[in-house]
Amino acid sequence: MFPESLNFSIRKPINHFVDMLVTNYGSTFRAISDAILQVLLLIEGVLRGTPWWVVIIAFMVLAWLGTRRVVLTIGVGIMLLVVGMLGLWDQTMQTLALMTMATLISVVIGIPLGILAAKFRSVQRIILPVLDVMQTMPSFVYLIPALMLFGLGKVPAVLATIIYAVPPLIRLTDLGIRQVDHEVVEASTAFGGSPMRILFGTELPLAMPTIMAGLNQTIMMALSMVVVASMIGARGLGETVLNGIQTLDVGKGLEAGIGIVILAIVLDRITQGFGKPRRFK
């Protein structure tokens, strides 16, 4: 048995820190919450208010632009049609809005941090352990402070999703820029390119396939959080799965699960397509 005299707890200082944040910066967190919620509701309103057939056509256009594959493009339309026929269209649009918001914020955070990590080794040394914690810490753990700071609803669900989903984008942005051929960078420098011009004109375009792979993983991980997010007030397919669990309705849970799988396949194929050279088939 481990000696009790060597035991220590970090519970009290962490709880005190979170209480201090709520007490002293509650208005700031409310302002952030309101801003995120307004944008999220706007995205959700657009998706839910757009005719279903327009949404399907839009996804088919994206699939065609990303892959140039006729069969895949038609398959995307058929899969989304199945979602609607299962009676899950509205829930799917809610889930898509949550994912879109989380992905946009992840891109705003992840790509700049990935660039900094690639450019400065000291930043990389700090970021990598933090990313390890973010990816390995159970999602329920950071749901608790998110609830305390932002309350129940869509906003803490978005933030919890970001924490879980942003690490792959940071890691692969860092990796993609580091893998750019040094001779290409040296040639750009020799022609008088400034660091910013080299970054945006040479390094980022060459690293784009790797960055898109990171974005793909971020979207997939965000989608895997939909059921957890439903436990703190997020709507959508995750809520339907949760209701199926609570009522032991296997069919209801399976239908929502199929909707999640279809959405994952559609988004995965589209983002993979944009990360690869375009081919006509």
3D structure, described in words:
- This protein has 281 residues and is mainly α.
- It has one domain: MetI-like (MetI-like fold, Orthogonal Bundle).
- It is built from twelve helices and no strands.
- Helix 4 runs antiparallel to helix 9 (195-223) and helix 4 (89-119) packs across helix 11 (237-246).
- The longest helix is centred in the first third of the chain and has 39 residues, at 11-49.
- The mean pLDDT is 87.
The CATH top-level class label:
Mainly Alpha
* SS content category: mainly alpha
Order of helices and strands: HHHHHHHHHHHH
CATH topology heading: MetI-like fold
Rounded to an integer in angstroms, the radius of gyration calculated over CA atoms is 21 Å
The CATH architecture assignment turns out to be Orthogonal Bundle
Helix run count:
12
Spell out the CATH superfamily: MetI-like
Spatial gap, N to C terminus? 65 Å
Backbone shape: globular
- Percent in strands: under 5%
Question: What can be said about this structure in brief?
Answer:
Helix content is 83%, strand content 0%. By secondary structure, the chain is mainly α.
Topology overview:
Layout: H1 11-49, H2 52-67, H3 70-85, H4 89-119, H5 121-136, H6 139-150, H7 154-178, H8 182-190, H9 195-223, H10 226-230, H11 237-246, H12 250-274
InterPro entries: MetI-like (IPR000515), MetI-like_sf (IPR035906)
Keywords: Cell membrane, Membrane, Transmembrane, Transmembrane helix, Transport
GO cellular component, one term: ATP-binding cassette (ABC) transporter complex
